[in-house]
Every structure is written in C-alpha cells, then in structure tokens.
Design a protein that fits this description.
By secondary structure, the protein is an alpha+beta fold. Helix content is 61%, strand content 13%. It is built from five helices and two strands, in the order ααββααα. The chain has a two-stranded antiparallel sheet. A hairpin with a 2-residue loop joins strand 1 (36-43) and strand 2. Helix 1 (2-17) packs across helix 4 and helix 2 crosses helix 4. It is elongated and about 55 Å long. The chain starts with a helix and ends in a 9-residue tail after the last helix.
C-alpha cells in the first residue's frame, strides 16, 4: 500500500513539475531534516529544554515522519496527491513540514543558554 502511494505521488510530481521526481524528493528531505532539537533534562528539580545535535539517521527518520504526518493533514483527495503536494512544497522551502523544522531550530536557539547541561 505504502509503495503504491509513493510511486503514485512520484508520478504526480513528474506530471506537475516536469522535473525528476527523485530529485524533488531528495531536495524535500534535505529541506526538512533538522540539525538540532531540544531534549528535556531534569536538573535539581527543574526541567530544562537542552538543545542537542541530531544524528543523521534520526534526522532522516524525523523528516520522513513529519512529511507523512503533515501530508495526512492536507486537503487533497487521495493520499498520493497529499504526499505529492507536501513533497513539492517542502522542496520549494514552504509547507508545514519545513515550518516544523524551523520551529524546532528556533526552540533550540532560544534554549541555547542551557546547552551546558548536555552530557
């Protein structure tokens, strides 16, 4: 089921953009991958949001998870059309999944003062 949805989405991307759909997919994933995230760390009775770097495997997993979840929330008819729309938006630097990455980075930047709690 997932394989047919992905292939249909890649066909939709090829029809709409007249571009290489795998190139669009790779650009979308690189635009959504987070570099830093925040993790909760309990220190002396207080909980701090500590910014940490994201491993490449986790970064890839998060980007795929975000693209799929925000695709489900879109308004197109089929899941293939939703996924294609989200991938095209992410490749062009807009869309909900790119905004999620930017929000994650902003939160890490705001909590940069607690970076010394990282271990």
């Amino acid at each position: 089921m997932a394989q047919s949805i992905l292939y249909d989405a890649l066909e939709i991307i090829r029809d709409k953009t007249k571009d290489d759909p795998l190139g669009v997919f790779q650009k979308a994933m690189s635009n959504v991958k987070p570099i830093v995230e925040v993790k909760s760390r309990r220190v002396g009775g207080s909980t701090y949001q500590v910014p940490t770097e994201v491993k490449p495997s986790r970064s890839q997993a998060l980007s795929m998870r975000w693209v799929i979840s925000f695709s489900k929330a879109r308004g197109e008819k089929s899941m293939a059309a939703r996924l294609a729309g989200e991938l095209m938006d992410a490749a062009s630097g807009r869309g909900a999944s790119v905004k999620k990455r930017e929000d994650t980075h902003k939160m890490a930047e705001a909590n940069k003062a607690f970076a010394h709690y990282r271990w």
